[in-house]
Amino acid sequence: MRARIIGFIAIKGGVGKTSTVANLGAILAKDFHKKILVVDANFSGPNLGLHFGFVKPEYTLHEVIEGKVPVKKAIYEHSSGLHLLPSSLLSRKVNVDKFKQYVNSLRHEYDLILVDTSPTFNEEMQATMHTADELFIVTTPDYITLSSTMNALKIAKEKKIRVEGIILNKVRGKKYELNFEEIEDNTKTPIVSILYEDENMLKALAKTMPLSFYKPNADTSVEYKKLAASLIGEHYTDQRMITKVRGLFNKALTRDEINRAIVMESHY
Q1: CA-CA distance, 19 to 116, in Å (whole number)?
Q2: Would you say the C-alpha torsion 251, 254, 260, 266 has a positive or negative sign?
């Protein structure tokens, strides 16, 4: 066992990056029975632990980086089976130079390691980019966020870091939004998941749990399951009746389904 380390980045807050890491991690652990570690490398504004009800962990990644405790002492197990390495909510500046070393030391313990990071291009994000084997960029379909996304892609390209695809979040299906073709044409990067705005996401956050636990059959939860499956070389079949009915009238694969298949082929 040697885990792939996957980083999730966005050079703009509020696009749903942390929620994406939480849901993918939870689904991979609970639904696909994989050994998963999610890491909160957003040292200056961490909240990944809150998605799983970890409000005041005794030890965090901050203490690990500061050399106060071994890394395994700061790892917590969630009821889903997922493991979490949180950062301290009472954030303080740390030297992130050894971050890669600590995360790499855990590769043989897990199937996948998912890393959340700062929504700002700073030393925290750079630490994640240098540590990850591959990146996904989380964005929303508007011009301001597209600009940030293109900047993130430029930085990754300069650092020769592999970007697997774009996760397009908080889509409303309105005419004023950028369409999928525009985003792919401008970024030269495939969209691998399309997630529509879902009020249940906020309700799940209020209950400190991932949406995939709160509403496992919600459209967004199912889309997360499809993406999670592709990360491990599997295919998720949506068994909901409404999907079967839709399939009677439209059997064509969507753009993101095709792109996920390509990503899956590249690893398996």
Answers
A1: 10
A2: positive
Distance of alpha carbon 217 from alpha carbon 225, whole angstroms: 10
∠ CA 195-231-221 to the nearest 5 degrees?
A: 30
Using a pLDDT cut of 70, give the percent of the chain over it.
92
- Indicate if the alpha-carbon torsion angle 16, 14, 175, 199 is positive or negative: positive
The domain 4-267 belongs to what CATH superfamily?
Answer: P-loop containing nucleotide triphosphate hydrolases (3.40.50.300)
Distance CA 181, CA 120 (A): 26
- Per-residue pLDDT for 245 more than 60? no
In the prediction, which pLDDT does 258 show? Answer: 77
CA–CA separation, 204 and 225 (whole Å): 17
Window from 3-17, 37-51, 85-99 with minimum mean pLDDT? 85-99
Give me the sign of the Cα torsion angle 258, 259, 264, 267.
Answer: positive
Residues 57-69: pLDDT tens digits? Answer: 999 999 999 999 9
- Domain-by-domain residue ranges, the chain? 4-267
Q: Are 137 and 152 in contact (CB under 8 A)?
A: yes
- 33/111 Cα distance (integer angstroms): 10
Model confidence at 230, pLDDT cuts 50, 70, 90, reads very high
Its pTM surpasses 0.85: yes
Does residue 3 contact residue 37 with C-beta atoms inside 8 Å? yes
Q: What is the mean pLDDT of residues 192-218?
A: 94
Q: Enter the tokens of residue 227.
A: 């993406």
